[in-house]
Here is the input.
Amino acid sequence: MNLDAVFGQFPILKSDTLTLKKVEEHHLEEVYDIYSNDTVFEYCGIIPKYKKATVKNMIGHFERDFNKRSRIKWGIFTNEDSERVVGIMEAFDFNQKVNMATIGYFLAETEWGKGIAAEATRIVVKFLFEDVGVNRIQAEVMPANERSKRVLLKNGFIKEGTLRQASLWSGKGIVDLEIYGLLQEEYKIEVK
Here is the structure.
C-alpha cells in the first residue's frame, strides 16, 4: 500500500464530470449546507452541525486528519461549477496489515439522484486500487440506506453480510451495519 499516494501531496482526482479536491475554508457555506441537513445524515454516524463555527472547525479537522495520515476527505465538485462543493468523499481506516481501506460519502440533498455519488465512488475506487495499491475497499451501510447500497452495487461492491448491533454511531446508538466489499481482483475483471 502506497500511503504516500494518499498523504503526500493532496491528490486531486478527476473524471469527465467531477473533480475531487481539497475542501478549503472558503467552501464553508456549501459544507455547512451539507452538514446542517438532518436528511443527509439520517443513515450516518454523524450528528448534523447547526453552527457555522462548528463546521469551520471541522474543515480544519479535515486538514488535521490528512496531516496525521489517518483520513482523507475530498470535496466533490462538478466540472460545470468547480468551486461549489456538492458532497464529501472520504477514505479512512487504512489497514496496512490487511492492505485495505474504508470509504464513505455524502451529498447535498439537492444533488441526490444525479449519479454524483456513484461517479465519485468510481473515481476513488480507481485511485485506491490503481495508485495506492490496496487489495480491498469496504463500506459500512445502515440496512435502511437503500441509496447508498445502490451506489456501491453500481461500482461492483458485494454485500458481504450484516454485523448485528455491532457499532455505536453518534446520534443513532448501537446499530446494525451491512458490509460491502470490493477486491482488487474483482476490480480488474470489471475494468477489462
Remarks:
- The first helix runs from residue 3 to 7.
- The CA atoms of residues 118 and 150 lie 8 Å apart.
- The first strand starts at residue 13 and ends at 14.
